[in-house]
Amino acid sequence: MRLSKKVIAVAMASMMMVSMTACGNSNSExxxxxxxxxxxxxxTQAAQEPAQTEAESVxxxxxxxxxxGGTVGVCIYKFDDAFMTTYRNALQEILEGKGYTxxxxxxxxxxxxxxxxxxxxxxxxxxxxxxxxxxxxxxDQIIAxxxxxxxxxxxxxxxxxxxxxxxxxxxxxxxxxxxxxxxxQGELILDTENKGDINGDGKISYIMIQGDPENVDAQYRxxxxxxxxxxxxxxxxxxxxxxxxxxxxxxxxxxQNDLAQFxxxxxxxxxxxxxxAIGALQAIQAAGxxxxxxxxxxxxxxxDAALNEVAAGNMTGTVLNDxxxxxxxxxxxxEELLGxxxxxxxEQSIYVDYVKVTPDNVADFQ
Length: 366
Ligand code: GAL
Hints:
Elements: H1 5-19, H2 44-47, H3 51-69, E1 71-76, H4 82-97, E2 101-106, H5 111-124, E3 128-131, H6 139-149, E4 153-156, H7 162-165, E5 171-175, H8 178-190, E6 203-210, H9 216-231, E7 235-243, H10 248-262, E8 268-271, H11 274-286, E9 296-298, H12 304-311, E10 318-320, H13 323-338, E11 349-351, E12 355-357
Parallel strand pairs: 1-2, 1-3, 3-4, 4-5, 5-11, 6-7, 6-8, 8-9
Antiparallel strand pairs: 10-12
The structure holds beta-D-galactopyranose.
């Protein structure tokens, strides 16, 4: 069973009439309701019942319909991404568990392809969209498209600016503040017995394996991981910075080349995510180095594979990128939008906290 936007709009219009809490500019759908405003004589008695009764029954209709039949289109930037696979699975379980009909599309890391997918979802008349943009730089275009079609939309994982989002009041971003994850990576290094300065030369020599640099997560993690070290008064030396595009194989290649070039000079390997860290670990082990003895290694995401390596002492630590929490937040925001809520400019980002993961607490996440 599918719920049309109109049904929600009509129900909401009735609720607003009863409760008088309507927000001035949120009734963009005409309330062409066969409304209970002018009751027929036979209904007079019912109409004399307290207004609250009607409000309650309309609310029940909305709750029932939004939970049991809306259609949701989900666009993922690419299926072949370890963290976004975990996130996608969480979204699917939550949405299907609530009775939505949900379709996932693989953007294949191609913005033009994703634009087509968004247009197709709109043409099919989906009730809501959840979009993980391929390119952060495409945000303006995506927002204009969903606004034009008047489809409530939740953006995930790649955060546009507040100004970009303010163009459309039925748009929300649910994600994390990537600065926090970078800072936590730096703190993981500061928490080691020698604060990352394994050879005691007074500076922390590191390599940085970066995600897709177009992505704010990559930019902030790169910046704030090192900032945490310098803020703590440590001297740092960047031996190399290379883009690994969130990809395990690239992480392995970059680490292998850097280990061959810089050898024991490398004290810390910062990876913007866990999948690249797992790749880097393969190179570290192949080079005969031992994590937490002669080199440190940190990632972000808390993928299952990374949790196992943290528990085994093969990664210094990681940072939980809470896929479950973000998926729950995205669905909750979507349901609020479906219920008629609109968002004021500057209040369109909803953040889920990152959490540091070390051998001490890793069991809590496994
Ligand atoms: C990051 C995550 C990466 C990758 C990226 C995709 O938040 O840490 O592993 O999934 O999103 O945009």
